[in-house]
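Appendix B, example 12.
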Amino acid sequence: MAKKQISTELFAAIEVACRLFGESEIHRDYSGRGMFGDTCFGFSGRNLYAIIAKILEIIAANEQLVMEFSELLARTKQDDLGLGWIIYFPGRIAPEKAGA
């Protein structure tokens, strides 16, 4: 399956939202259950719903980003990390790091 990159604008909004909540993290290459070593983009934290709400607040004025995030959420999987949860998106990758 070909992986689809999320937009840099949506990724930036996710980064901002994760930064606003302590104990959250961006995962560029998470390998979840049943992925057999394949990797994808995800983010983790103790309160994923608050992070998602903040992302929606950040992107609310941009209909294209709202649609992209909606499509991303439709592909959501999650795992328990013990002290929090990860939400991840098989088949989706983060944009390249600046300067990489």
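The chain has a mean pLDDT of 91. Residues 4-93 form one domain.
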